Amino acid sequence: MAQVMAWGKAEGWEGIDLVKHYLNVEIASSPSQVAKGLMFRNKLGEDDGMLFKFHTPQNLKFWGVNTYIPLSIAFINSDNVIEKISYISPHDSRAITSETDCDRAIEANYDFFTKNNVKVGDKIEIINDDIKTFVKFV
User: What is the residue-averaged pLDDT of the chain?
Assistant: First the structure.
């Protein structure tokens, strides 16, 4: 599991924004990975999620069919800015859309974004190392 790093502005670091949080993510980039997403899972680690990558910015659509756990989803534009955060209920067939052109989305546990003070307008950075991929929220 990813080490949680939830910082605010540190004393003596005026004007420098530090990382809000890291999320350990699986990458979904192929059509089959994107279609399956987090379906059929009974649990998700507290700081785990899935990053969906699309080749071109578009109005993204997700749903909760065959999803067993409640999720939150952040839609990210090509400037790495969160455009919208929504919620996906288990087994819900209603479409959840980005409403604007985005080329990435992040699914996490239902309360992840709220609990970690991640909001619309925040930026993300994707960090790859030899073992895992993380999304850093700044």
Answer: 87
